[in-house]
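pinging the channel bc i need a second pair of eyes. not urgent but kinda urgent?? the chain im working w is below, pasted from the shared doc
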Amino acid sequence: MTASNSWRKTVVYTALILCLISFLLIVHAGYEYYSNNTDDKILEKAKGDAYNKASVVLENISGELNSTSLLTDGIAKELSSGKLKNDSIIRQHILDEMEGNPNIFSIVIAYSPAYYGKLHSLHLKKNGSNILEFPILYDYTNNNEETTAWYTNAMKKKCGVWNRPYFGVADGTYLIDYSTPFYLAEFKNGSEVAGVVCASHSIEGIRTQIGSLDLGNTGYGFIFSEEGLIISYPVQDYLLRNIHKLAKEDTELNLIGENISKNMTDRVVENDRTGQSSWVFYKNIRSTDWILGTALPQEEILLNKDIEQDRSIIQVMLLTFAFLFFLSLFFVSIYRYDDRSLWLLALVFSSLCILGMGIIWHFTLNESSIEVENGNIVVFDIADVETVLLNSDTNPKAFRIPTGVFIQSIEFSTSNDITMTGYVWQNISGLSVEKASPRFSFPESKESTVERDYMDEDKNIVGWRFTTILRQQFDYSRYPFDEENIWIKFWNNTSEESVLVPDFDSYDSLSPEKLIGLENSLVLEGWKPQKTFFSYRMNSYNTNFGVKDFKHRNLSELYFNVAIKRDLKSPFVSDLLPIIVVAILLFVVLLITTREEEKNQFGFKSSGVLTYCASLFFVLIVSHASLRAKIPTNCMIYLEYFYLILYMAILGVSLNSIVFASHMNIPFIDTKDNLYVKVLYWPIITGFLLIITLLNFY
């Protein structure tokens, strides 16, 4: 009795200590969660990260433009001081400055005819990787020409000035430039302007420079003038057009323009058509009337934060479950230290494990990370598309072919083969191609049939009906809680340099949850469509396919995706329910294992238990084989771990019956008519299942 009391005290004190430790850990984990991982904190932190990233970009671009003005002012001072005395010295100096400033497109030094007696200038510009001199053949002193504002503005204002973007005749491209006057002592004692120094950036160069900055997959930068002129934007066709006029055509641009006109920065812009949100930050560029801004996709930034939040919640959940179990152990040890208390503890532990698995399953069913898998860069509008193309090796002048998709049927012919039917249409305006053959192909298809179905001659739109069998590798490791991404990969068949882009204008809504491009009455047995969306992937190939000039590295290729989740009803009935029934029957077999005659109503014999276990094993083997035949995969499926645990349980129950019937006098098995083995059955099974669930999903 004394030993029993001593053991009881040990259990009580141990349970109390474990309660306190687990409670302190809950407090710590809860504090960390509420400090960092609540929805508001995650949003605030993500917004801070976005702001910091935007600030770096804004400072970089602003600093780059500021350095251009400093460079130009420096050349003007050196001219005024007499250090640059003749054309050859000036030419070499300009060449050195341009080599040291790779973002400068051209530099021109133009003399006033009043000083030089005639038009005279030195003009160097980039031509590919070279810097060459090109003469200015027009009258740059003409006040009535927009193309001469770089000279006339500086002459009039007699100070440095950023000029309105224009098409540079001598440079052959659209420019933004900074010009400043210089003075010479030999010209009216340095009191009159002797000429102008002008340094230029190409609009395309600014756009490329902003596009190369780290703003995520689809984040982008922009520059607008105070009047609303678009100086830089991902969509090349928008350059040098007015934002207020384009706002009627582009929802995203309209929302950005509204925020800027109301002088609101650090705001979330919500696009109802795409269902996406962006953080917009902007600032005025020093010494100009330009507005430099960034738009960062909120969903892309929050994606990893949401995963961290789920992990924090699960951590708090597990610590809470541990505290509840230790608390139960503490009270049971004080108030009810008998056999029934062991069953109560087993019930509490098993219930907590089952509840934990249920919560993890809930998070798994509600998470949505499929979009970022397989290198997908999801695009929702034309700005996203142009941002992606700008970051790839795509020629910025390549012709865009708007391509739309409508899927009518999807069928899994095998676990990795999908038969798909539907329509693809293309707007081939501006292309000198025949309309009798499609301008696309499905490179990943086993078989394809494409037939022309309709044509709109006025709009140059050709529609094609297709049937294709696609073979894709799916990840079934989380079965039956798996989600998959079915995709169609497009290749461009046009010989002219062009690129396929989504035909967003053909869809009423671009929100992925609205299942754009998918038949409303689509039947997909065993699956539920969740989202549809266009995306690009940067693919590289180890061959040029026999085409000498074919660029086979970092190719941006168009995909149409259908994200699906498995319908749980069928797997529950066919796969999970047999496992639950076998586990319960195996426990019943364990319960009838007894040496007490009054309890031995079923005539317990170890041979009978072995026969019964063999029958259950056969049931499991058949069910397991059926699962493997249904989902052939090289990896272990999540549900297979349930079978493995039950195999071990069957083996354990069989060995237990043999040892128990053999009177080998093993205290753990013989004590209280095999009580400890019976009590530990469900805690061991549910505990292992919880651990496996955690390892598989988190």
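so The chain has four domains: 62-198, 207-300, 372-566, 570-697. and The longest strand covers residues 399-412. — does that match what u expected or am i reading it wrong
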